[in-house]
Design goal:
This protein is of the alpha/beta class and 500 residues long. It contains 14 helices and 21 strands. The strands form four sheets. Strands 8, 9, 10, 11, 12, 15, 16, 17 and 19 form a nine-stranded mixed sheet that branches. Strands 1, 2, 3, 4, 5, 6 and 7 form a seven-stranded mixed sheet that branches. Helix 3 crosses helix 4 and helix 4 runs parallel beside helix 5.
Length: 500
């Protein structure tokens, strides 16, 4: 989507469609009022007929109103003016964009950013507008023969109208940010929704290579199993042993910042299918374990957003990718493997494989001397029990980093909630035969998973995002959400001082 920010007299603007907000009880927004005047009160006359009152979810398309220079006028209900919040606003933008995608208009003026939204700056409102409008273009029908949902005349260009001409530059930046975040979300959703037979570790590696094409600041390096063996990644490789697809360690190095600036490292769990291994998962819903690479997908999406915006930051994405399947050569309960760091691990449950591939990727990340490391993983079913699908679980060995991420989640409408990582939980990982066990029993499963990872991140400022509940929706609207690309990009924008 292409965005241009403009300001000035709305009645003088030619367009294929102009979108205006209407509040409850037919209350007109500022632009609606100006346009109403320009067409001698036609808009209020039409509203008096009662087909639309301005409630949230309502809309009305009007054509060729005399005196106006727009071919269409799209009225969007915004609900009570005093109650319009970020959620309601997003809903209004999405509705407008969906209607326009079904119309023949391929360019439109949105006057919605002029609306006042509780506790939202202009930067946020404009960014949310672009994010919602671009994001509403995502379709999950890539592999359907008939693309019934695909609009015939999709919207291509949106002119965002704001009232304060002094803020055009800031608003244009906000629009670019929103667009890039939405494109990152779409990439993460696409990768997540792809089935396990297509989205293999090799496929992810190819997509990383593709991402680097034409992006001069992004270099991609793929480590093969042989190289991982040399590095001593016995834990990671033990998981891929049970699969015919070779594991890959994907390293994406984006150098947008100063040479001496320490990088942020994002480590994303890339299990392209998790059947559980010998500790096989039950059949119902097992298809959803194709989403076990959504941590990796969020790293791809965030890196893409960084590249698109050319952010002045050094960012490294590390994606350990493998399948977890039952096989004659697969890990068996009781097996003991040696991690790259040297710690021996007793694998008491082969389904706790995420931590087995992440621990070696985290040890590998030490070589980048990162400022901070954040791993993102669909790690535990226990996190879905604890937090449901609204909040991502956050655990960290550093309070400042945890606060930064919580704050980013809050600002980007992509919330996380912190759980404790107290030493009291660590003994749950004790093993009789190895340095550490890969499971910690029934209690506090999300915390003990993070405790496991914490054994490998002692030298770094580290945070762990458990996205098991937030990365995809189940049921009728099954599909990847693209979370937490928004949170992560906001975190990086803020670090660059570019979040408005
Ligand atoms: N990928 C799963 C976690 C998961 C399960 C995410 C369900 C979303 C929904 C992970 O590899 C896993 O299987 N974890 C086990 C750990 C247990 C064996 C300690 C789990 O949560 O059951
Ligand atoms: Mn598992
Ligand atoms: Zn898993």
């Amino acid at each position: 989507m292409h965005y241009i920010v403009k300001s000035g007299d709305i009645t003088q603007q030619k367009s294929a469609c102009t979108v205006i907000g209407i509040f409850s009880k037919c209350k007109l927004s500022a632009s609606a009022m100006a346009l109403d005047e320009a067409c001698n009160g036609q808009i209020s006359q039409i509203l008096k007929k009662g087909d639309m009152e301005g409630e949230s979810g309502q809309s009305l398309m009007l054509y060729d109103l005399p005196g106006l220079s727009c071919e269409r006028l799209l009225l969007i209900g915004c609900g009570k003016q005093s109650e319009l919040d970020a959620k309601g606003y997003q809903k209004a933008v999405t509705l407008a964009t969906e209607i326009l995608n079904e119309s023949r208009a391929t360019a439109a003026i949105y006057t919605l950013p002029e609306l006042e939204i509780a506790e939202c700056s202009l930067y946020q409102v404009v960014r949310d507008t672009a994010l919602s409008a671009t994001a509403s273009h995502y379709r999950a029908d890539r592999l359907k023969s008939e693309k019934k949902d695909e609009p015939k005349h999709p919207l291509k260009k949106i002119i965002l109208f704001i009232s304060d001409s002094k803020q055009i530059k800031l608003a244009q930046q906000a629009a670019n940010h929103g667009n890039a975040i939405a494109n990152g979300i779409s990439l993460a959703k696409e990768l997540g929704d792809l089935p396990g037979n297509i989205c293999t570790p090799t496929h992810l590696a190819d997509r990383a290579t593709e991402l680097a094409k034409g992006a001069s600041k992004l270099k991609v390096d793929i480590l093969e199993e042989k190289q991982m063996e040399k590095l001593g990644m016995g834990s990671l490789l033990s998981v891929s042993k049970g699969s015919r697809q070779p594991a890959k360690l994907i390293i994406m190095n984006y150098t947008g910042g100063k040479k001496d600036q320490k990088p942020v490292v994002l480590v994303g769990k890339g299990l392209t299918f998790d059947a559980g291994g010998i500790s096989l998962k039950p059949s119902p819903g097992m298809d959803e374990m194709k989403y076990d690479m959504c941590g990796a997908a969020s790293v791809f999406g965030t890196l893409q957003a960084c590249v698109e915006l050319g952010l002045p930051i050094n960012l490294i994405g590390v994606v350990p990718s493998s399948e977890n399947l039952p096989d004659g050569d697969a890990n068996k309960p009781g097996d003991i493997v040696t991690s790259m760091q040297g710690l021996t691990i007793e694998i008491l449950n082969t389904d706790a494989e995420g931590r087995l591939i992440l621990c070696d990727a985290l040890t590998y990340s030490e070589r980048f001397e990162p400022d901070v490391v954040v791993d993102i993983a669909t790690l535990t079913g226990a996190c879905v029990v604890a937090l449901g699908s609204h909040a991502t679980g956050l655990l960290s060995n550093n309070d400042a980093l945890a606060d930064e991420l919580l704050d980013a989640g809050q600002h980007a409408n992509d919330k996380a909630w912190r759980l404790p990582l107290w030493d009291e939980y660590q003994p749950q990982l004790d093993s009789n035969f190895a340095d550490i066990a890969n499971i910690g029993g029934k209690e506090a499963g999300t915390i003990t998973a993070a405790c496991f990872l914490s054994r490998f991140t002692k030298k770094m400022k580290w945070a762990h995002l458990d996205i098991a509940g937030t990365a995809w929706n189940s049921g009728k609207s099954k599909g990847a959400t693209g979370r937490p690309v928004s949170l992560l990009t906001q975190f990086l924008l803020k670090r660059c001082g570019l979040d408005g």
